[in-house]
Amino acid sequence: MSPNLDREATTRRLVGLLARRGYPSAIAYNVVTTQLNAANFVADTRDRADETPVGAASSQPRRSQLASSTAAEVDDEHTRATELVRSKLRTLPRNLDHTKATQRLVGLLARRGFSASTAYAVVKAELSDAARGID
């Protein structure tokens, strides 16, 4: 982010990025504002007077709330990735090499904005299930 952006412009830009990746705007806004608050982000010096210390006790509830919302988002992301991989597995040729199938599926998830760790974990699990014949 550019250092000369104010908090509102930063929030709009980050919410827009998440919205383009498929997240609902309301959830994206909540995540962005929570993360900016947790990071104590203040782009304008006029807002620094209202800033609370980083180690203040008031920041503890935010962190626990953030951890629970982040865990739910990770589960949701994993579920969406699994659904995409399962639908793509149905259309892949049965005689396709395991390595090539992995590359194609991870590439699919990467183009959709999933992290590399999520993509590889989901693809590995789904390919092993498909090899055993589990649908």
Helix percentage range = 55-70%
Figure out the total of helices. Answer: 5
Backbone shape:
elongated
Which regions have little confidence, pLDDT < 50, spanning 5+ residues? 45-53, 55-60
The assigned structural class equals mainly alpha
Strand content: under 5%
How do the helices and strands follow one another from N- to C-terminus? Answer: HHHHH
Overall mean pLDDT stands at 77
Region (Disordered): 47-80
Keywords: Cytoplasm
Domain RecX third three-helical: 75-123
Family: Belongs to the RecX family.
Record keyword descriptors for this entry.
5 helices, RecX_HTH_3rd, mainly alpha, Regulatory protein RecX, cytoplasm, 135 residues, 68% helix
